[in-house]
Specification:
By secondary structure, this protein is mainly α. The chain has one domain (5-107, 119-188). 73% of the residues lie in helices and 0% in strands.
């Protein structure tokens, strides 16, 4: 990710922690819950890898293409499973946003034959309308997730949960909230 080093590392640590918790959730979930936890773990780890500051650890030139292919596949998977559960529509939007960021952050994005300077700058910095739409989506998602988190945390009572760490609904919501905020921050950096 292009930008300051310390916020990049903090964002990377936050996303990796969220991805690790989602991976832990796959052990206590089954069926649709497990599928969603896997998709969220992939998103968390992918965002963590993409958030590593490029000034410290420069990604290989082909790395952005790998992100685009990986999250393109995740978008197709989310589209397929969206027929079973609407939550996968959010995974679809997140995966498309990751593909979009990978394509706009790639070195030389838009620098090809026959591309004039104004178009190359728009492609390299992203399409402002698409970036704005994704920012609006993730801002609303974060606000809704935060509002849903408050009643779940109050209802759980803070006691021990029978299923262990993986079965805590307030942690799953906090994880989604964290990744939504991280996605917003990464899009803001475009």
């Amino acid at each position: 990710m292009h930008g300051p080093v310390v916020p990049g590392w903090l964002l990377m640590a936050l996303c990796a922690t969220a991805g690790a918790y989602c991976l832990l959730r796959t052990r206590s979930e089954s069926g649709e819950g497990r599928r969603a936890a896997r998709a969220e773990a992939l998103m968390g780890f992918g965002m963590a890898a993409m958030a590593v500051p490029a000034a410290v650890v420069p990604p290989p030139a082909w790395g952005w293409a790998v992100y685009a292919v990986l999250f393109g596949g995740a978008a197709l998977r989310a589209l397929w499973f969206a027929r079973l559960d609407r939550h996968h529509l959010h995974h679809l939007v997140g995966s498309v946003a990751m593909v979009y960021m990978a394509l706009t952050m790639a070195p030389g994005a838009g620098a090809g034959h026959g591309v004039h300077a104004g178009h190359a700058a728009a492609v390299a910095g992203g399409v402002p309308l698409l970036t704005g739409g994704l920012l609006a989506y993730f801002a609303v998602y974060v606000l809704r997730s935060g509002a849903r988190l408050i009643p779940v945390a109050a209802a759980s009572g803070g006691g021990a949960v029978a299923g262990g760490w993986g079965a805590r609904p307030e942690l799953a919501l906090a994880c989604r909230l964290t990744m939504g905020m991280a996605m917003f921050a990464m899009l803001l950096g475009l």
